[in-house]
Amino acid sequence: MNRSRGNDQLFQELCRDIGTNRVHRDGASQLLYSRDGSAFPGGIPGVVCFPETTQHVVDCIKAANRHDRSFVPRGAGTGLAGGAVPCDAPLVISTTKMNSILEVNYEKRFAWVGPGVVNLDLTKSLAGTGFHFAPDPSSQQSCTIGGNVANNSGGPHCLAYGVTNAHILAIEVVLPDGTLVQLGDVDGHASGYDLRGVFVGGEGTLGIATRIAVKLTPDPPEIRTLLLDFMDVADAAKTVSAIIASGIVPAAIEMMDKRIVNVVEEFVKVGYPTDAAAVLIIEVDGLPEGVKIEVERIQSISLEHGARSVRVASSDEEREQIWKGRKSAFGAVAQIQPGYYLHDTVIPRTKLVEVLEAVYEIANRYELIVMNVFHAGDGNLHPLLVFDPQEPGIMERVLVAGEEIVQVSLDAGGVLSGEHGIGLEKKRFMEKLFSEEDLAAQKLLKDAFDPDGRANPFKVLPSGASCSEVNHLNQLPDGAWV
Amino acid sequence: MNDLEDFRESVGESDPVAVVGGRTHWTVGGNPTDDTRLVSAPVGIDFFDPSEMTVSVKAGTTLKDLNEELSRYRQEVCLEGSSETTVGGALMIGTDGIRRNLIGSIRETLLQAEYVDAKGKLIKAGGPTVKNVTGYDLCRLLVGSLGTLGLVGRVILRTRPQSEKSVWLRGGLSPEKARHICFRPSSLLWNGEETFIQLEGYGVNVDSEILNLKNLGYEELGVKCPISIPSFRHKFVDGMSLDNGIIDVYSSILYKSVEASEPQHSEEVLRLGNRVRKMFDPLGRLNPGRDPYRTGP
């Protein structure tokens, strides 16, 4: 197909259907929307649209279908797996202008929001109401609720509260054939197949969310945040397992190793102990009496497992400082190298010690700097391979080391992704985890939603054709900034 | 039967087939057609690591046997049913119990499933870890599917710590006021006149909330649910008559002794659901006669 001529016709019809000011195909827009927060340099979008209503989204998809063109849903583009990278000149449909909080029902504890509402904006809008939206991915200052739905996003507090799927009650979706459908209901009890549940985490390959009913979680009456430091990474990892084994499920357990602690402390100066081999940030919440018990038990368990000190934040300001360091980690890395490659495997929590040791060994063997800052409580590793992309030969080493880290995680009984998704980045690894028949079963779901394969093609599953513009990217990330 | 391969062979590749468990929810969504061959799922707990808070269990295992093993380590799973209900049966029915507000939805419980598909092949869905976004989450589809997409042989489930203390109370606050008084009660029921609150957690937490509620006239009733909950689930809509039913306030489910009329779904949802079923089972051999869209809310 002549994509250039097709672009002209598609552009004109979109301008007619949703308004000229909402349709872009200039070079700057195409460049801007050619990539996301991942390592992939980018494909080429056909036309970029900014719908403001559900009907606009329907019109966009119908226009794409008339022109036999695929489409890529896009939120803030903070994804780290290439899920929003356009392949084969698709229509890019950005939902960032659908950013209104449409209805808040405190009595029934839900809110309908547009997919373009920024995660932190929703949190801020609920401040003081006694409720919050629990998923808090590290990119929450810029990522959208629609993106959270697409990736089934996590965040530090998902340990006790669950990932995004547990906080989405219903979704209004435009299916790839242009049909409008509501999946789930605000009571969270729709019978039949859990189509809402599979749509969440579908990475935009099953349709586009146009309205989302999120669950409002009551604020806990008491919160305590602890900063624990260890002179041995293994002791920190063993402490995580011991806390979970004791029957305590904290709101969050985050771990940072010495390298990242030093980089963060230099960057934001929040009082982290820079001589420690690792620190744990643990947060517990609930009724005051129970929180007191859990703080005491965690103190006791951690000291038994080699913690050098346990600091309990005594004020909201101190608590915010502790979290500020953790949330600044990825930005802080820029101080030492201009690029990084971030993995997202999950392992059984009881395997933390051996897998972390293997990660360090792999990095050492390939003469790479690795930093670990991750959701230790649910075993979700985030090894950061930090490097200068200009250094000859380093990309190859980063890729090979990364693949070994993935393999070590799988060998330990883990999975490929805990919260970033598969996108383009990890689909080449899917066959390491699933058999051909397993993947064929997953394809059945995709085909039921999208028989013509137009919704965000080339993502998630390794089968079928591949994205011509970004094939080479499977071998060559250039570092990612989020 | 204790082997997945034997289970796969018993399911076969061609004729109408269904798994029979404890028959505790046999008629939900309709009976299988007369020509349906019945097979049993394998039985047994494969591994349980209390420090990982996951358990691998075969689908034919009863909830009673599973809970006995888990309770030795003061843990439980979010599956509810009678003692004869099987793990596979509870998952295929897929309805949440009245404690959902505390323990979460059954749909969050299933981490990995190994099932036999319509072609007789053994398929693995999901993964063994407590957090996972690796590919499409077919486990979500299987829960509540009444075995129409695949016949589950073995699963990995998320477990949770048992509560230190559990107690029911009865009093006169409206449901709206009661839900504001308590922090995350596990159950809140209303019969139109009184509210019944189940509190769970650390003993000190429960005791302090009991004190609050007693000051508001509530009566402590013990560990067991003090009222009989009718069998049939109806979606409760504001203004609807309770008609001797009991409302699960957090879920807006009205439990009644009469069966609900068929739940209403949009044409678009039914069309998509039917497409899913057709894709997974083009010849309609898995649990023919059953329809997940005919079950209650």
The secondary-structure class of chain B comes to alpha+beta
Proportion of residues in helical segments of chain A? 25-40%
Shape of chain B: globular
Q: Helicity of chain B, in percent?
A: 10-25%
Quick check: average pLDDT of chain A?
93
- Quaternary structure type: heterodimer
Question: How large is the share of residues in beta strands of chain A?
Answer: 15-25%
Termini separation of chain A (Å)?
Answer: 35 Å
Helix/strand layout:
The complex is a heterodimer of chains A (482) and B (297).
Chain A: H1 3-18, E1 23-24, H2 27-32, E2 47-49, H3 54-66, E3 71-74, E4 91-94, E5 101-105, E6 110-113, H4 119-126, E7 131-132, H5 145-151, H6 158-161, E8 168-174, E9 180-184, H7 195-199, E10 208-215, E11 217-218, E12 222-230, H8 233-245, E13 252-257, H9 258-268, E14 278-286, H10 288-304, E15 307-312, H11 316-327, H12 329-332, E16 339-342, H13 352-365, E17 369-374, E18 383-387, H14 394-411, H15 430-433, H16 436-449
Parallel strand pairs in A: 2-4, 3-4
Antiparallel strand pairs in A: 1-2, 5-6, 6-10, 7-11, 8-9, 8-10, 12-14, 12-15, 13-14, 13-17, 16-18, 17-18
Chain B: H1 4-11, E1 17-19, E2 37-39, E3 45-49, E4 54-58, H2 63-71, E5 75-77, H3 87-93, H4 100-103, E6 110-116, E7 122-126, H5 138-142, E8 151-161, E9 165-171, H6 175-181, E10 187-190, E11 195-201, H7 203-215, E12 219-222, E13 232-235, E14 246-248, E15 253-256, H8 267-280
